[in-house]
Amino acid sequence: MLTTNPFAELSASISPIVMQTYVVIMIILVAGGTLFDIMHKKSATYFFNNWRNANKKGAHQVGGGEMASLAIQTAAVEVLTSGEFCNARRRVAHLLTMYGFLAYVITTAIMVFGYPTPATPTPAIVPGLWYLGALMICGGGYWFWFFIRVDVAAEGNSPFRIVRADLFILSLLASATLALIWAILQAAGCSWTNVFLGLYLIATTVLFGSIPWSKFSHMFFKPAAAFQKRVAEANGSRSNMPAPADLPEKFGSARRQPQHY
């Protein structure tokens, strides 16, 4: 089962053109939703205004070579390894979810466009990575949802309390979970396959269609904000924050350290 392309199997009942059109629509929703989010929240305006102000207040100008070095550091630390998270559990959960999502999305596109029918055999590694990506999303996402969220871990709220900010993680978990259930039921020839296929498509549509109201576009804004922070520290402006103290304040106590950041 783990080496079988579930979308190629689905082509017996749904045309590959329909599946490919659906994926293209999801891509358009991501691009359009992100642009709308940027215009509605004026994120780009704020970013460039803040960039200009930081350059004006900086003690010195950051050269091209140093700028490139800062960009590489941002990619290596904040983007690839989520170095902004001090809490190791949250960092691992985030990395599982992030890399799982990338594997899940990329392999879906490869299977739908490159190997849409059984006539073009899919390399075993591609569906294997699809299953692995979905499982990584579930592992990191459910771990975060039930054990790491600040309002649950620190404030004692119910893990089932839902606010609008949870739309992204919940729709992502629903998409990955229902995808796995659908693929397993399809491989087993279960009569419930079409029901879970429909639920999977609904969850995926909500995931990619709710960008203006969810935190999906956050993944595009965070690297830019992290890079801007590094530049502000390099030119001396430090975003109007004071210089680091020689002995930084320590939070928590010797008996119990903070667990939620």
Entry keywords:
single chain, 261 residues, mainly alpha
Ends: how far apart? 39 Å
**Biggest beta sheet summary:** none
User: Taking all residues together, what is the mean pLDDT?
Assistant: 84
Strand content: under 5%
**How much helical structure, as a percent, in the residues?**
55-70%
Separate helix tally? 10
Order of helices and strands: HHHHHHHHHH
Broad structural category: mainly alpha
Topology, please?
Elements: H1 6-10, H2 16-41, H3 43-57, H4 64-79, H5 88-114, H6 125-148, H7 150-153, H8 167-188, H9 193-209, H10 218-235
How would you portray this structure in words?
The protein is mainly alpha-helical and 261 residues long. The protein has a domain of 177 residues. The protein is 67% helix and 0% strand. Helix 4 crosses helix 10 and helix 8 runs antiparallel to helix 9. The longest helix has 27 residues.
Summarize this structure briefly.
By secondary structure, this protein is mostly helical. 67% of the residues lie in helices and 0% in strands.
